[in-house]
Predict the structure.
Amino acid sequence: MQRALSLNNSPAASVPLRFMFSTPVFVLLAALLLLWAGPMAFVSRWTPQALALTHLFTLGALAHAMAGAMMQILPVATNIHILAPRLTATVVHIGLGLGTLALVAAFLVGTPWLYHVAVALLTIALLWLPIAVVGGWWRHRKNASKGSVEILAGVRFALAALLVTLVIGASLAGQLGASVTPNRVFTDLHAAWGLLGWIGLLVIAMSFQLIPMFQVTELYPKTITRWLTPTIIVLLLAHTFTVMGWGSADLDIIVQMLLIVAYLVFAGETFYLIWTRKRPEPDATTLFWRTSMICLAACAPVWLAQQLTGTDMSVTLAVLFIVGFAWSAVNGMLYKIVPFLTWFHCQRGLQVALPFIPKVRQMIPDQKAKQQFVVHLLAVVLLIAASLQVPYTARAGAVALLISAAWLLMHMLHALRLLVSTKRKIRETLGQAAQS
């Protein structure tokens, strides 16, 4: 983790913020779809509604947030500049957004050409992103911050997992576009590399920087920052080999158990760091991250129950991991990154301090963020219950998710309005000073 940040390396505000603001919009779309689909979305992970919901979260909400976070954090925390940040942001944002919508529409209506459109758009976006990141790392590798080795390694592993996920996903979508039923082995591998690889590894890598910085905690132990992400990659490779027939079913169970242990180590250490942080009073982000780690840890007993009883609990595992773990972490992260970015860009380039520039905590007051957390927590609980077929919880969870995402977006728009109005006031003040 790099304690000293190079804020002057920050890209233009529009580069990360376009991704950040797209994130709650896709959660809103997911909530509306769930409100329409109701319990049918939780019957099986293979229903069109479940597939559409999953990808609204993973490609729509989470991938946008991850892309925006990388474009902002890598330059300031590691001194690695992404190639052509404005162009990269534009191409990735358009391709990822339109590609996600096309894929969701394809799942829901089954029109073959929509799958092909989705594959084309998503392939462009999700190939461009790692090329721009790795190209930037290669160009600036000699200038990389000394304390950023583990973060950069985690990001590279996450991007490698993204490429595997993309290749398998494009193949599966192509089969659906040709009206061919995909092989179950490859759908499971697509989910494993996408969730445990791309999303999980990037959350871990970003946590190494964001948790100590924003939560004022101790640093993660060197053993974890150095070995956790490569261990997960090796285990994912082992899982791939075993399910492809190059290992026994018993060996695959052991590999899955080790993957669970790896994520439990991350959840336990993160929860401990947050619990023992230097600021005893929890802020909204603390609450989101506690929820995130609890949901991640809860995946272990659910997986164990699935193995012991033979009951398919994949929908519950998906809700816990995607909504409970990943989305909770991202929601909490947005309450730190968006206020900080809007505050920073309010005064970027100023030679003198101006008294009317708002403070970071004024961008999104913590009390308002805590109110949204309560609704978010309710949504998570209701969606977990819905995955367990508890009556009346699916649409109730959709309503709570809708309110939560709308509230988050409203808070973020408030910060953006403050940025715009403050910049306007700065121009007026400096203009008047120049005339006098």
